[in-house]
Amino acid sequence: MNGDSDRHAPLAMDAATFRELGHRLVDQVAGFLESLPLGPVTRDESPLVVRDALDLIGPLPQLGMDPAALLEQTAQFLFSNSLFNGHPRFFGYITAPPAPIGILGDFLAAAVNPNVGAWTLSPAATEIESQTVRWIAELIGYPVDCGGLLLSGGNMANFVCFLAARTAKAGWDVRERGVSGDSGHRLRVYCSGETHTWIQKAADLGGLGTESIRWIATDGKLRMDVAALRHQIEADTAGGDVPFLVVGTAGSVSTGAVDPLPEISALCKEYGIWFHVDGAYGGFAAAVPQAPDDLRALSQADSVAVDPHKWLYAPLEAGCALVRDPEALRAAFAYHPPYYHFEERVTNYVDYGPQNSRGFRALKVWLALKHAGAAGYRKMIADDIRLSQAMAQAVSRHADLQLMTQDLSITTFRFVPRDLRTNLTKPQVELHLDALNRELVDRLQRGGETFVSNAVVSGHYVLRACIVNFHTAQTDVEAVPDIVARIGHMVDAELRPTNSQPE
Ligand SMILES: *Cc1c(COP(=O)(O)O)cnc(C)c1O
């Protein structure tokens, strides 16, 4: 799109070519999305095969190539060599299919290409991001006058809240003087053993070190033990440490467990500690009545991290940090003093987080929120929870499967061949079952019929199916037990060649 310029830039493309290539690509993507449910979730290909399929080991080309052929090859390569989290039988980790309007939104965002670090560089985009943050807060019942911004995902959203807490609660100027300051006091963070690994990364990157983390025990339902939390805080305070942050999880990554957020909130108020909720997975479930009541107490937190690329089905990447006091974000990240207190102060997102130049992540989230509406989202999230409960029922009805947990939209279970049912207390049987289920997860992940991941529950290696997938239907969840049992029996026969019971 060079106009009449005499400069012929190799990347420039005239409008007619762009239109033609764009239409062709949209047709291909539509066909891909349409046929996706009919094919496998993934293909069991080796890294070498993947690299070879598009010469991914070759050197940097010196000369360019025809963009039509390039897009054609690349689209075909991606359509046939990927794992498809948009497949209705994809239940792994916590990864959602992309909302179609979000796919188009990313295209549109890239075309306009605003730099959402500064208002001047992105007037429309900044205002759309601000509204997106308010809508996200509203959807989960958090104060809409909070501060917040979009980030790459749950990890970064949690980091941002962690750093806001560190600045607010250290008791000295931690940004200028560092984490130890001159005080000699150690900052302490509290969370349960079920907390996602972001906490180690945050303690490490935040300069506190992972030893600053106090891992609080959990109860039989994998929820933080608040009495143990109180005890640890009191012991640390008596020892001269500075408890600055308690992290409650609203939907743990392994089983969807929700910490007792109301009790944790009350305790944090009592001790003047920052209360952060990691709602990367479960936060959006606060929008639906099916979620446990405790989850809704995330509204009391000083900060909350949620992940639109999980339960808002935004294409990767989109995380979101919400902080009750917007000034706490500026205090943690801005490098000019926060003295603009005008009514209509413009937002420069560079002051609210670690990034400088920022892409227009908000657009795909904003479009999806408008496309489905809050009611549409409540329906989709409630459906995911209902389907997970249906999967748990189907699992518990199957004679070769043992249901372990069902929380929010995560079901965990394991394959226990029926002849071993009565021997579950024998250590050799448990060893066999762990090996069997480990291999089974691997086999299922490569087989392409369905995709589950794993968890460890009460010391057992188990299969884990998480539904944050608006393509999944009842037939998909009901198919799971038979697929698992069929492959489970094959693996069992291989690991028990004599076909005898492990003694
Ligand atoms: C997924 C998840 C994270 C990390 O989020 P990313 O988007 O993968 O960075 C953190 N905490 C919980 C509870 C999660 O489920």
Separation of the first and last Cα atoms: 73 Å
Beta-strand fraction estimate: 5-15%
Rg on CA atoms, Å: 25 Å
Helix content: 40-55%
**Structural category:** alpha/beta
Count of beta strands:
11
Poorly predicted ranges: none
Q: In the CATH scheme, what's the topology name of the largest domain?
A: Aspartate Aminotransferase, domain 2
State the shape.
globular
CATH architecture of the largest domain: 3-Layer(aba) Sandwich
Mean pLDDT: 94
The helix-strand sequence is: HHHHHEHHEHEHEHEEHEHHEEHEEH
Q: What's the arrangement of secondary structure elements?
A:
Layout: H1 15-35, H2 47-53, H3 67-80, H4 100-112, H5 123-140, E1 147-151, H6 154-169, H7 174-177, E2 187-192, H8 198-205, E3 213-216, H9 226-238, E4 242-249, H10 261-271, E5 274-279, E6 303-306, H11 308-311, E7 319-323, H12 326-333, H13 362-397, E8 401-407, E9 410-415, H14 427-447, E10 453-457, E11 460-466, H15 474-495
Parallel strand pairs: 2-3, 2-4, 4-5, 5-6
Antiparallel strand pairs: 1-7, 6-7, 8-9, 9-11, 10-11
Helix pairs in contact: 1-3, 4-13, 5-13, 6-8, 6-12, 13-15, 14-15
Bound molecules: pyridoxal-5'-phosphate.
Structure write-up:
This protein is an alpha/beta fold. It folds into 3 domains: 13-80; 114-360, Type I PLP-dependent aspartate aminotransferase-like (Major domain) (Aspartate Aminotransferase, domain 2), CATH 3.40.640; 381-495, Aspartate Aminotransferase, domain 1 (Alpha-Beta Complex), CATH 3.90.1150. The chain has helices at residues 15-35, 47-53, 67-80, 100-112, 123-140, 154-169, 174-177, 198-205, 226-238, 261-271, 308-311, 326-333, 362-397, 427-447, 474-495; strands spanning 147-151, 187-192, 213-216, 242-249, 274-279, 303-306, 319-323, 401-407, 410-415, 453-457, 460-466. The strands form 2 sheets. A 7-stranded mixed sheet has the order 1-7-6-5-4-2-3, sandwiched between helices. A 4-stranded antiparallel sheet has the order 8-9-11-10. Helix 8 (198-205) links the parallel strand 2 and strand 3. The relative contact order is 0.13. The model has no long low-confidence stretch (mean pLDDT 94). Pyridoxal-5'-phosphate (PLP) binds at residues 94, 153-155, 158, 196, 198, 249, 253, 278, 280-281, 307, 319. Pyridoxal-5'-phosphate binds at residues 94, 153-155, 158, 196, 198, 249, 253, 278, 280-281, 307, 319.
